[in-house]
Amino acid sequence: MSVDGTPTPGSLDGRPDPAGGTQSGHANGDINGAGQQNGIVMAPPTYLTHRLRLNPNSDHKPDNYEDLELDFSPLIFSSLERYLPPNLLPQTRDVKVNYMREILLRYYPESERIRLQKHREYRQKIISNYQRLHRELYTINATNFFVPSFLKAINENTEQGFRNIMSEPSPGIFTFEMLQPRFCEMLLAEVENFEKWVHETKFRIMRPNTMNKYGAVLDDFGMETMLDKLLEDFIRPISKVFFPEVGGATLDAHHGFVLEYGIDRDVDLGFHVDDSEVTLNVCLGKQFSGGELFFRGVRCEKHVNTETQSEEIFDYSHVPGRAVLHRGRHRHGARATTSGNRINLLLWCRSSVFRELRKYQKDFSSWCTECQREKKERQRQSVAATKLELLRREGQAAT
C-alpha cells in the first residue's frame, strides 16, 4: 500500500541472530585489516549466508565509502557496517563492501538494477540541461534555510531540546517550525522554474509517485546531495530520539519531492501509507484553504487495512514553514484543497538496516498499534485462563 508501489522487504521474525552465519575462511585476531595472517596475504573470506546482527556494534567506527563507485549510496554502506558479524569488522573494506552488496542486491533483481541504471541516465540528462534558478538551494546553508529555534535544537541534540520546539498533538505525530520564509519562497520559485522548463522543452518528467499527477522529484533536478545532508544532519538526529523502533537512528536513504495541490492540480490524496520509515512533510505555501492531513493510526503490513480506533483519529491543518514528522506506516491522506494552491516538500526517509532486520521479526508491537492491541488481548486471555484454572483447582481441593 505504499504510495509509489516500490517493493519493500518482507516482514520480520524476531529470532536471535546467529551473528552472521557460517564463514568458510577464518577471521581471528591474527588477521589484520589488509587480509594478512603472519605476513602472508590471505584470500578474501567467503560466507555461506549473508545476514546482519540484530544489535549494532556501537563502538565500531565505520569506513568511509564515498570515494568508491558503488551501486548504492555510500551512506548505506557506512550505516550497515555496524551491523556486520563481528568476524567481518576487521576485514578489508572491499570484503565488507562485497558482503553488504550481497544483502542489498536481495532487494534489487537484475530487472530492477537495469531500471535504476536507466533512471540514473535519465536524471543526468535533466541535470545537464536544466538551468538552475537559485543555486544556493542545492547545498545546505543552515542559517538561511532553517528558523533559529530549529537550529538551536539540532545543535543541542538532546531529547529535551527537541521537545522544546515540538508539539505532539497525537501520539507519534510531531509538528515544529522549520523553514525560513525566504527558503520557502526560493523553493517555490525553483519549482515554477522546473515546470516552465518541462513545458518549454516538452521533457517528460517522472512524478513523485503513482498517486500524484503533479509535482517533481527534487533528486532528479540535482538536489540529491542537499537532501542527503538534510537527512543525515537534521532529520536523523530527531528520528533517533522519537522513532528508534523503526530504524530512526539508521536512516540512510531518501526520496525527496514536492507535491502541488489546487483546482488545476491534484485536489486531494487518498488514504495510504508511505514507502518510508519516517516521513518529513513541510508546507511551502502559497495561499490556499483546505488540504488538511488526516491520520488514522500506525499499522504494519498485516494490519494496514484494519479498523481505525477513535483515539487514532487526528486532522492537521498545514502552515507554511511548519513541518510534520511521522512514521511512514502512519496511515494518512489529504483532504481537498478547496481554493488557491498548496505546495509541500516531502522527504521519505528510509533505513536499509531496518528493512533488512524486518525479515527476522514477526512481532511489530513496538510500533504497530494493532499488534499492540492483539498482544494485550492475548495477555488478558492468558491471565483470565490462569485465574479460571486456579479457581477450578481450589474447588477440587475444597471437595
Put the structure in a nutshell.
This protein has 399 residues and is α+β, with helices and mostly antiparallel strands. Helix content is 34%, strand content 19%. A hairpin with a 2-residue loop joins strand 3 and strand 4.
CATH architecture of the largest domain: Sandwich
Low-pLDDT sequence parts: 1-42
What's the structural domain tally? 3
Strand percent estimate: 15-25%
The CATH class of the largest domain turns out to be Mainly Beta
Report the oligomer: single chain
How far the N terminus sits from the C terminus, by CA atoms, comes to 59 Å
* Main sheet record: 8 strands, antiparallel
Which structural category fits the helices and strands? alpha+beta
> Per CATH, what is the topology of the largest domain?
Jelly Rolls
Rounded to an integer, what's the Rg over CA atoms?
24 Å
**SS field, number of helical segments:** 10
Rough outline:
globular
Which range best describes the helical content: under 10%, 10-25%, 25-40%, 40-55%, 55-70% or over 70%? 25-40%
What integer is the average pLDDT? 84
- Reading the helices and strands in chain order gives EEHHHHHHEEHEHEEEEEEEEEHH
Protein name: Lysyl hydroxylase
Organism: Handroanthus impetiginosus
EC number: 1.14.11.4
GO molecular function, one term: iron ion binding
